[in-house]
Structures are given as structure tokens and as C-alpha cells.
Amino acid sequence: MTNSTITRSVLITGCSSGIGYCVAHGLQKLGYQVFATARKPDDVARLQQEGLESLVLDLNDPTSITATVQKILERTSGKLYALFNNGAHGQPGAVEDLTQAALRHQFEVNVFGTHELTRQIIPIMRKQGEGRIIQNSSMLGLVVLPYRGAYNASKFALEALTDTLRLELANTNIFVSAIEPGPVISRFRMNSYKMFEQYVDAQNSIHQATYNKMHTTLLQEGPVMPFTLPPEAVLKRVIHALEAKHPQPHYYVTLPTYVLVTLKRFLPHRIMDWVLRKVI
Ligand SMILES: NC(=O)c1ccc[n+]([C@@H]2O[C@H](COP(=O)([O-])OP(=O)(O)OC[C@H]3O[C@@H](n4cnc5c(N)ncnc54)[C@H](OP(=O)(O)O)[C@@H]3O)[C@@H](O)[C@H]2O)c1
Prior knowledge:
By secondary structure, the protein is α/β, with parallel strands linked by helices. The radius of gyration is 19 Å and the shape is globular. 51% of the residues lie in helices and 13% in strands. The N and C termini lie far apart (40 Å). It has a seven-stranded parallel β-sheet with strand order 3-2-1-4-5-6-7, with helices on both faces. It has a single domain (9-278), classed as Rossmann fold, CATH 3.40.50. It binds NADP nicotinamide-adenine-dinucleotide phosphate. NADP nicotinamide-adenine-dinucleotide phosphate is lined by residues 13-20, 38-40, 57-60, 86-89, 109, 136, 138, 181, 183-184, 186-188, 191.
């Protein structure tokens, strides 16, 4: 456990389901003061009923970010030990079918909202002289897969900001880590399906046949990829990133992350492309 003299408070985004939900409950059980935020008021009410301190935070709404940060600081006397940037969505679709609106929405949530929240928290951590910023990135922030261009791009952007931030905070006591999950059980695919329906004109696309197959996968309950892990696998890395004296810059989670990153390092580009085209 950290030697921190401040309350071990953690702000988490996207706690309505999946990894955020698991990490919020897991950290609360360990004694952290958890601020489990969610986009929708109904989810906030549900989380409160479950005993979590929950507030609305929509990463797509700058006023919601600022208002919630203020409310949390009022409850913690202006301090916050850690931020777990977890909330995000996946926008499926071939690159040529991605409208500017779809790409913009993907970046508003996964990159710009997450960045703005982080920017508002850093001065607090600087003032208190310590802090932990943990980004829930993805193996798709390190390696791309087809039909996930918007998501790939958003997570690559998050990786770049995260690595840069870590260099810039190197002489402080604020540690920045990225977690790189491969397939994890959550509502991610189901939520991605909604974004697909909202933004992709599948009927008029050259990729219609692939989309038909994708539909089935996105709507399938339970794991669709081998080596899928439960969200507790991410919780374990979050705890390390919060409590280790020297947290790791990157935490790989699931075998597919290790395998794809290693293959990318050693295989020639054309062979790597062949491998990646097999995984859709
Ligand atoms: N599951 C995987 O295989 C996997 C793999 C690699 C990385 N990840 C990353 O893990 C993180 C958590 O995803 P998950 O797998 O737990 O999926 P999930 O069950 O879909 O959870 C995503 C969370 O993000 C929230 N969110 C979406 N848009 C938001 C917004 N505008 N403002 C605030 N929150 C928003 C969702 O809220 P709503 O319920 O309101 O939509 C939900 O709480 C994401 O960053 C994802 O990229 C997941």
C-alpha cells in the first residue's frame, strides 16, 4: 500500500458496466474512497444504491466534467490521489465508411473528454505533491485491427498523450500508467453495436457482407475471442499502478496483447498485415 498521507481517493470514469464497474467495487472493498462516475443518471442512482459514491460525468460534455471535478474536490478538501480514465466507446466500421461525425464523437469521448478531465486533475496532484494517472487504453492502442479504425485511432492518440505526459511529469511524484487490455468481458461489444447502428450506413456500403458477420459477433453474449479474461484481470493491474512504489508505464492484459505486440515488433509489415486481417 502507498505511504500517501492523503486519503486514497480515486476518480473513475465509465462505471456503469464492465471494467469500470469492477474496478470501482474492487477498490472500494480495499478501502479506497472511490468516486464512481457514469454518463447516465439512472446508472448513477443504481451505483449509489449499491453503496458507491457516484456522480454523473459525461466525457462528451465539458460542463459535466468541470462540475463533477468541483463536486468531488468539495468532498475531499481539494485533494485526489488517483484518476482512472476508463470510460470510452468503440466505433466499428471500415475507414471509408466513417463520417466526420462518427470520428468526431469517438475522439470527443475517448480522447478530448479524457484529456480535459486529466488536465483538470493534474494541478491538484501537483499541489498535493503526488498522484497516479491510469489510462485504460487497449491493445488496439499499440496494434490496429481492421474495421476498428476510429477506435484504433482514438487509442493510439491516447497512447501518444499518455507517453508524452509521463515524460513531462518525470520529475514529479505523479506517475502515469497505461493499461493495455485485449479481450475482456464487458458490455463493450453491445455498446459498440449501438454506435455502429447510429453512424454506419451498412446497407449502402461495399463492406456490407463483412458488416453482416460483424453484427452477429457484436450481439453475441459472452466471449467471442479466445483468451478473453474477466475484468478482474484489469483490476489487478490498476491496484499495482496505484500502490507500487514505481508503477509500470504499460501493463499488458491478456495473451492476445502480448502476442500481437511481440509479432508487430518482429514480423515484416506485409506478414503482420496478413496476421491482422485474419482477426476481425
Ligand atoms: N472489453 C474489452 O475487451 C476492452 C479491451 C481493451 C480496452 N478496453 C477499454 O476498457 C474501457 C472500459 O470498457 P469496457 O470493456 O468495460 O466496456 P463497457 O462495459 O462498454 O464500459 C464502457 C464504459 O464507458 C462509458 N462511457 C461511454 N461513453 C461515455 C461518455 N461519453 N462519458 C462517460 N462514460 C462513457 C460507458 O457508459 P454507458 O453505459 O453510459 O455507455 C461504460 O460505463 C474502455 O476504455 C475500453 O476502451 C476494453
